[in-house]
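TA notes, week 10

Several of you asked for a full example with nothing omitted. So below is the full record: structure tokens for the whole chain, then the designed sequence directly under it. When grading your own attempts, check the secondary structure regions first.
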């Protein structure tokens, strides 16, 4: 398995994001009819397995020391292999290296697998923030990458 950066203009990345949105639309779990193209302000990573791009995710600057994880997606036939967990670690490492020790993210309230992944990776639920505030279908999470003493 290889995890590598891809520009927002990458066609394989765009295909994954379209597949993600189609899946959300097909299952009726949000999407709200919005089609999101890859964003230039997001640093994307893709997972290449058997010469095929099978997963993606990205991060963007949200505030001074805060990054937001965006567009986590694993093709359905590749789920259950720990790919998302490895991808989230790679995203965290990139954000921390760029001086963003706090990560936030938003997912859908009915995406139980995603919620489980984020909780098991150390993310804690927080009030909806930014554009997600007031959306009853959004659940938001946060994780500090700095070591803290308890």
């Amino acid at each position: 398995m290889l995890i590598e950066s891809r520009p927002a203009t990458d066609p394989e990345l765009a295909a994954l994001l379209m597949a993600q949105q189609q899946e959300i639309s097909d299952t009726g779990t949000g999407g709200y009819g919005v089609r999101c193209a890859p964003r230039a302000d997001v640093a994307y990573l893709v997972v290449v397995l058997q010469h095929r791009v099978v997963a993606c995710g990205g991060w963007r600057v949200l505030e001074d020391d805060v990054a937001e994880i965006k567009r986590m997606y694993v093709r359905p036939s590749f789920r259950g292999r720990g790919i998302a967990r490895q991808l989230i670690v790679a995203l965290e490492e990139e954000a921390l290296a760029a001086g963003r020790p706090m990560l936030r993210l938003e997912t859908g309230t009915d995406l139980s697998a995603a919620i489980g992944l984020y909780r098991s990776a150390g993310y804690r639920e927080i009030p909806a923030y930014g554009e997600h505030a007031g959306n009853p279908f959004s659940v938001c999470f946060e994780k500090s990458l700095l070591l803290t003493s308890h």
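The helical segments are 11-27, 83-97, 112-120. Use that as a sanity check on your answer.
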